[in-house]
Amino acid sequence: MESMNHGIGVDIAFLLLATLAVVTAWRVFRTDSMVRASFFLLVSFIAVGVIMILLAAEYLGVAMFFMMAVEMTVMALFMVMFMMNPAGLNPMNMVHQERISIGAGVVSFLVLSAMALLAVFPDRPVSAGLDPVRSLGNEMLGDSMLIFESAGLVLLTTMIGVVVLSSHRGRYGAATEGSLPPGLESGGDPAGKPEEDEDGEDGGHHHHHH
Amino acid sequence: MIVEELVLPVLMVFFMLAAGAYTVAVLDRVIAGALGTPQAGSVWIVPLARGAWLMTQHANATEAPDWRAWRLAPALYLSLAAIGLAVVPWSGSLVATDLATSVVLWGSVEALATVVIFLHGWSANALFALIGGYRYVALGLSYILISMFVLIGVALPAESLQFTQVVASQGELWNLIRQPLGLPLFLIVGLGMTFWGPLNLADSADLAGGTAAEISGPPRLVWDVARAAMLVAFSGVATSAFLGGWLGPWLPGPLWVVIKMLAVLLVLLLLGRLLPRLAPERCVTLMWVVLLPLSFIDLVWAGVGALL
After folding, report:
1. pLDDT at position A197 over 60
2. Domain presence at residue A203
3. In chain A, which residues have their Cβ closer than 8 Å to the Cβ of B141?
4. Most CB within 10 Å of its CB: which of A142, B60, B66, B81?
5. Taking CA atoms, what residue in A is nearest to B135?
6. Domain of residue A148, residue span
7. Pair type for strands A169-170 and A173-174
8. pLDDT for residue A200
9. Does an H or E element contain A170, and which?
10. What are the extents of the domains in chain B?
11. At which of A90, A105, A120 does a domain end?
């Protein structure tokens, strides 16, 4: 692993990726669809992930790809489901609370820039034989592997349990009983259904229902 | 240096994309012919002729699609297949990208494929394509999970996330035997992720072609080539993860990789021709209730094996 003397290719790659990350992050707020916004954000995160690989953080960079891919897909789909915007193709405004957002953006930009320019970063070159993946694992999980793994297992079990418990209860009743909308007054006929022809069966003559 | 580190690997991957997609097209027609579906013309010429014909055709347009995403999605799917082929080692030293985390990179390819397939269906702004895209997302999550557990299983005995190390760890015993559940599960994921044969639910006939219902001409060619290339990438990864990659007697390593990849492709394409298509609801149940627990068992099996 080279420490400081990297090639010009790394610099060019960094500048291109940083530009891609900033431009796509800006497009997130300028586009008019939630699906597009999610995937612009995904491109931005992928560019950041590649920069992390350039910084020799190979595991964290690649982990960024798959985590963000799944996360953004789920986010896009849930936003479309909850926002009543059919398929996310209808134009809609992607920004709100503009003044607070602008203020928060300016403040965080200034703070982060000041940190980048003014902070004194430690200069501790790592040994050439360091395995970044293994050392990251030891750093993060060394003594607490058992706790971490147990917590992960408990969380997974909880998620599966929640899905199992809630998946049968739909918006309009249990999934196994078919879904009928509730009545307009309590106990009434399902809303939005055309009224049945009352004398169809009683009157003795048979209609053809279409 | 730049030739060795950039030009040669890129050429290698491009060659694999073209040769692999052509091999899939020929092999699939040979199998179809052997199973009794009459084939018009020579199986060697027909794929090329169809490709040339698609190149000359008009690219269909729908009403107000998301043009950029719609045109990019097939190319992106092809790029993901290329990334997959780039991490497949041909020998201990001959590998396009010997990343220390290449197993995780392959996992990312599977996750990003979900995004690309969804975008392909969504951006057409057409009903059947959209349903196909949603259907793939619903199924894709279970494919990714199964694949992750199976791949963690092969990383355990290697004590590494690098495919070259995974292959090297199979010197005594291939993972095919050491973890018998691994390869079958991984092949099912492969059929699912390329929506091939029994798991063709995203682009299926009941959706009039699904995510690809509205494409024609060059984009259709790229999409078809990308699916075939992804199947080849799957066979390459399966070869490295379960069949000992370049390891084998007498023949040189890269030749062993080619033989094993062809064997895996043959199995995948045979399954694709022999099995009927599943209903999507049943497929979700099958994935979550049967195959995902099996992948847990595979992982526990691998973990116990690594401890002993």
Report:
1. no
2. no
3. 70
4. B81
5. A77
6. 131-167
7. antiparallel
8. 46
9. strand A169-170
10. 2-307
11. A90
Reported ipTM? 0.89
- Residue A70 within any structural domain of the chain: yes
DSSP B18-66: HHHHHHHHHHHHHHHHHTT----S-TTTHHHHHHHHHHHSPPP--SS--
Per-residue model confidence as pLDDT tens digits over B135-187: 999 899 899 999 999 999 999 988 888 999 999 998 888 888 888 999 999 99
A198 inside domain: no
The count of domains in chain A is: 2
Rounded to whole angstroms, the Cα distance separating B99 from A52 reads 14
Cβ-count burial B148-175 (b if 16+ within 10 Å, e if not) = bbbbbbbbbbbebbbbbbbbbbbeeebb
pLDDT value for B107: 93
Residues of B with CB below 8 A from A36's CB? 66, 69
Q: What is the mean pLDDT of chain A?
A: 80
Q: In terms of domains, do A65 and A140 share one?
A: no
Q: DSSP assignment, residue A190?
A: B
Task: Output A75 or A128, whichever has higher pLDDT.
Answer: A75
Q: Which residue has the tokens 């479309």?
A: A80
Token couple for B303: 């973990």
Q: Which residues of chain B have pLDDT under 50?
A: none
Judgement on whether residues A140 and A85 belong to the same structural domain of the protein: no
Give the residue from chain A lying closest to B68, CA to CA: A36
| Co-location of A75 and A23 in the same domain | yes
Higher pLDDT, A143 or A120: A120
In a domain, residue A118? The reply is no
Q: Which residues of B touch A33 (CB under 8 A)?
A: 66
Which has the higher per-residue pLDDT, A7 or B10?
B10
Interface of A with B in 105-164 (CB under 8 A): 131-133
Q: Flag if A66 and B122 touch (Cβ within 8 Å).
A: no
B interface with A, Cβ–Cβ < 8 A, is: 64, 66, 69, 99-101, 104-105, 107-108, 110-112, 114-115, 118-119, 122, 125, 130, 134, 137, 141, 144, 161
| pLDDT value of residue A88 | 55
In a 13 Å sphere around the CA of B119, the CA atoms on its Cβ side amount to 30
**Is A76 in the same domain as A11?**
yes
Asked if B28 and B269 touch (Cβ cutoff 8 Å), the reply is: yes
Task: Give the residue with greater pLDDT, A124 vs B4.
Answer: A124
Residue whose structure tokens are 């000992």: B244
Q: Could B69 and A88 be called an inter-chain contact, meaning their C-beta atoms sit closer than 8 Å?
A: no
